[in-house]
Design goal:
By secondary structure, the chain is of the alpha+beta class. Helix content is 40%, strand content 18%. The chain has a seven-stranded mixed beta sheet, with helices on both faces. The chain has a six-stranded mixed beta sheet with strand order 15-16-20-17-19-18, with helices on both faces. Strands 23-24-22-25-21-26 form a six-stranded mixed beta sheet, sandwiched between helices. α5 runs parallel beside α10 and α27 runs antiparallel to α28. The protein is globular.
């Protein structure tokens, strides 16, 4: 349940672009010629409208036995009158708190059927709720969604309002507590004047939320959450006839709400402005934003192309000049955030320490002016179009969740009235000319920007603006044209739960061995014309032992910074021209190099992939460039509360000299990265990135007969040089003799971040499945004990969870909770009590908890492997942990057979008297209350884990 903070539309590409750190391309509706045939075939749909006004869009996709249920209400923060800011987001939370006919947490029935990709979000123009459910659970999902649409008000009382108001306020604090966390609010206040519906933030004002009465909130629901103000999308294992029958049954009797006048506003033409603020940040960041075309304007698609050329990739103009040539910034990006009334075009740049931000701003001005004066070159435009095409092809694999096909249909239907608006948008992208892109830039990116520069210093508190007294909210009567049917569902019998579920299916694994000794594993997937590869190597962060910390991660990250005959920029250009996504990285116990290739460009993409692995250039100028940005990234890591805590905790768990006693990010330290040499990288590459004893996982639209000859062509003669490095021994460590609390000061913080850690047996341990299950009862799910306590009961936190990461050696188990600063000690006490009572057996797992987690784990499996990426991740686990091919079925069987006593025994492996605690917060506010708890010895350390002398 979140306030959206990024481009969240259909973009069909969000899943890909988010993982690459790029801004999503966002399809819009335009008055354009008929879309190309490929676009017409993309996400075919049918639709109907109930007499009460509910519009329903249906897309059939039978690749998995799941249905995405995605409902969008056409109400967001733009619809909030003065004095009622934050109501839309508050109501998003309230609608997760049960309804008149299902009292209790909304999530519970969905967990029992194994729902996946479940959440709700609010932004400027809309509120949405979504979940993927097994096909047999569709009736349950529709019953639940219709019950909160038509039968909610009786379930909202003052206690529920107060509870969720507290949760929302902690969500607000959590966002503001991050570095640069107040920038968006400042930008929108400046870019859109008072009175414009985009002036205030979606999460709203603390004062307005505190002032909200129960009747205010109920009247807000009556106004906006009727069927005639909603679009329901059903995508997946469903057809039109089934959808018509089920939707009419569950939603048809809900009366329409009033038809309210829509806010009239648009893009803002204004004079340029600028502001500065200081924050607890390691480096200056420049934001520049323009108010640009509204959703549905073809110029928005053209601006997306312009953004890609200007700053959308490594080979873009701003990257080339500011990152590669003049080396003035560590990172620069451009992106468009589309909204119904007016969109926002962003440029952001993280300025290197010691560089004057004014110098960077001057170059931004120059490059933007040059692009607007000359337009993109033909090659730049074609490359941008290819990148977007590839993102779309990859994105249509997912039916639901953030940015899936259901999102695409819903967003288009809500904002334009046409569920297929993305088709026209694709046509605009495909047919755009350089002059059209240039003209769109000239029209929107001239005068009128707002620049915000965030500088290192004391945290600036962005004060809330005064709230006016809200006017009475008088609603008109509903339009008589809407008719509600007679109810046919007896809701007094409760939620209709399915009595059968789809069977788990996992693709068959086919095997081969290349001439170089590499084992090949293929899983066929033909949902999209894409083939994905992951070359799996041993090593990882643990291989840094005896080397400079960060060597493994830094070396792997350098593989795509130039290879073979291509320098770093030429390599990036070649990848984009092929529509290929490739790179490499490391994790705790291994590394991998990955390629996602369009089927049509498979051979040349593999050629580039082979160069990356076999002939990385490791040019000194690129090492120096990446090193500087990397060290800046470590500083950013330390500035984030959770990042600082996860750098400090591992050495405390494992002890100095252990291979795992390193920051869990794998980034090393400033000193270790500064000392890395080209020889260090070459040696690591020679010893660990080698074909012998490696595995190449292939998932996608291919066969062994097709792909093995291509792999032999590009990799068959790759021979390892010298002896492979011996894997570091992972010694067992003892837990500490007693609990200890480590405090890290973050002056001015409005929240404290709490972590508790302890080592537990390896992922390869025979009891791992039982322990992970026991952890799920404690803190692995939304409705698990930790979250229900600190979020739903106490509303001191936005979320509280626990997990154990995978590892060949002893794993780190962690519980975490970002909590409001004045409840730090109390939250520590509650976390300690929860773990203590659970592990000791004083509050053992109940039969109901075990049954719920069994249902969640088992029934979610049929939908868990919808995408090739999910399949590849599971196969990667088989390789890393020496699991059999049928592991997913063995795991399912073991979970099905678990007893309460077995879960209780697994929970007992946690020892609350040997926990290591890390708390990041403003010590002026938290240190004395934490010491007074007597939880254990209290020590103050810095973000590197070094002791801090007591202040005199």
């Amino acid at each position: 349940m979140t306030v959206s903070r990024r481009p969240r539309t259909a973009a069909l590409v969000l899943a890909i672009t988010a993982s690459l750190g790029a801004a999503a391309w966002l399809p819009q509706a335009v008055a354009a010629p008929r879309a190309p045939a490929a676009a017409q075939a993309l996400i075919p749909y049918e639709e109907f409208t109930l007499p009460n006004g509910l519009r329903v869009v249906v897309h059939t996709d039978r690749k998995a036995p799941i249905v995405a249920v995605n409902i969008w209400y056409h109400v967001g923060s733009k619809d909030e009158p003065g004095g009622r800011s934050g109501f839309a987001h508050l109501f998003e939370h309230l609608m997760f708190n049960g309804s008149e006919n299902h009292q209790g947490e909304y999530f519970e029935p969905f967990e029992l059927v194994g729902a996946t990709d479940m959440n709700g979000t609010t932004w400027l123009d809309r509120t949405n709720y979504f979940q993927n459910v097994p096909t047999t659970a569709l009736d349950m999902a529709l019953w639940m969604e219709s019950d909160r649409m038509g039968h909610l008000l009786g379930a909202i009382d003052q206690k529920t309002l107060d509870e969720q108001r507290g949760v929302v306020q902690n969500e607000k604090r959590q966002g503001e507590n991050q570095p640069y966390g107040q920038a968006d609010d400042e930008i929108y206040r400046a870019l859109y004047p008072k009175g414009h519906p985009y002036h205030h933030s979606t999460i709203g004002s603390m004062n307005d939320l505190d002032a909200a009465s129960l009747e205010d909130v109920k009247q807000w629901f009556r106004a906006w959450y009727g069927p005639n103000n909603a679009v329901l999308v059903l995508a997946g294992d469903i057809d039109l006839a089934t959808a018509k029958e089920k939707v009419a049954r569950y939603f048809g009797d809900i009366p329409a709400g009033p038809t309210l006048e829509r806010v009239q506003a648009g893009p803002v033409k204004r004079q340029a402005s600028r502001a500065t603020m200081t924050d607890k940040v390691p480096q200056a960041r420049i934001y520049r934003a323009w108010s640009v075309a509204d959703y549905g304007n073809a110029d928005l698609d053209r601006l997306t192309l312009l953004s890609q050329v200007l700053g959308g990739s490594k080979s873009s103009r701003l990257d080339r000049r500011l990152v590669f040539d003049e080396k003035l910034v560590d990172k620069v990006s451009t992106y468009v955030q589309p909204f119904e009334l007016a969109s926002t075009f962003y440029v952001t740049a993280d300025v290197k320490q010691g560089v004057d931000p004014a110098k960077v701003e001057a170059i931004l001005d120059e490059e933007i002016a040059r692009l607007l004066a000359e337009g993109p070159t033909a090659a730049e435009l074609q490359q941008a179009q290819t990148v977007i095409k590839a993102q779309v092809v990859r994105g249509v694999e997912r039916i639901g969740g953030f940015g899936g096909k259901a999102d695409a249909l819903a967003e288009c239907a809500v904002y334009t009235g046409n569920p297929g608006c993305y088709r026209d948008s694709l046509a605009t992208i495909e047919r755009a000319t350089a002059s059209e892109v240039q003209q769109a830039g000239r029209s929107w990116l001239g005068n009128g920007s707002h620049t915000l520069v965030v500088l290192p210093g004391e945290r600036t508190v962005l004060e809330e603006e005064p709230s006016p007294t809200p006017a009475p909210f008088v609603l008109p009567k509903p339009d008589p044209k809407f008719k509600a049917a007679k109810a046919t569902v007896d809701r007094s019998t409760g939620v209709p739960m399915p009595d059968s579920f789809p069977e788990l299916k996992f693709p068959a694994l086919e095997r081969a061995t290349l001439g170089n000794g590499t084992r090949v594993i293929l899983a066929r997937r033909d949902a999209v014309p894409v083939v994905q590869f992951s070359y799996e190597f041993k090593g990882g962060f643990a291989a840094d032992l005896g080397r400079k910390l960060g060597t493994s991660s830094f070396t792997m990250s350098m593989l795509d910074e130039g290879a073979g005959a291509l320098g770093a920029l030429e390599f990036a250009n070649r990848a984009e021209s092929l529509g290929a996504a490739l790179g490499a990285g490391a994790s705790l116990d291994g590394g991998n190099a990955y390629l996602s290739a369009l089927k049509e460009n498979l051979d040349p993409s593999l050629d580039l992939f082979a160069d990356m692995l076999r002939q990385p250039r490791f040019e000194q100028k690129e090492i120096d460039r990446v090193r500087a940005t990397w060290i800046a990234g470590i500083a950013q890591e330390k500035a984030r509360p959770n990042g600082a805590a996860q750098r400090v905790l591992p050495p405390l768990l494992y002890g100095a000299g252990h291979p795992y006693a390193i920051p869990f990010s794998g980034t090393g330290t400033e000193a270790s990265i500064a000392a890395l040499t080209r020889d260090d990288l070459a040696a690591f590459h020679r010893q660990w990135v080698r074909p012998d004893d490696a595995t190449l996982i292939v998932v996608g639209d291919t066969t062994l007969a097709e792909v093995v000859p291509l792999l032999e062509k590009h990799f068959g003669d790759w021979k390892a040089e010298g002896e492979a490095a011996a894997a570091a021994a992972i010694p067992a460590v003892q837990r500490p003799a007693k609990p200890t609390v480590y405090l890290i000061d973050q002056p001015g913080a409005v929240q404290a971040t709490i972590l508790a850690g302890q080592v537990v047996p390896s992922t390869k341990d025979a009891q791992t499945i039982k322990f992970d299950f026991a952890n799920s009862v404690l803190g692995g799910e939304f409705s698990s004990r930790l979250n229900m306590n600190l979020r739903e009961d106490k509303h001191w936190a936005y979320g509280a969870y626990s997990f154990a990461s995978g590892a060949l050696g002893q794993r780190p188990w962690m519980a975490f909770a970002p909590v409001q600063i004045d409840k730090t000690a109390e939250s520590l006490a509650e976390l300690d009590r929860e773990v203590r009572e659970y592990a000791s057996g004083k509050a053992p797992p109940t039969a109901a908890e075990v049954a719920k987690i069994q249902a969640t784990e088992i029934r979610s499996l049929p939908g868990a492997y919808e995408t090739g990426r999910a399949v590849m991740g599971t196969i990667g686990g088989l390789v890393r942990y020496d699991r059999p091919d049928d592991y997913v079925f063995r795991r399912k069987a073991e979970i099905e057979s678990l007893t309460v006593d077995q879960v209780k025994q697994a929970a007992a492996s946690l020892d609350p008297d040997k926990l290591v605690w890390v708390v990041v917060g403003d010590l002026k506010q938290v240190e004395q209350p934490v010491r007074a708890l007597g939880l254990g010895e209290v020590k103050v350390v810095d973000a590197d884990g070094k002791p801090v002398a007591a202040k005199k």
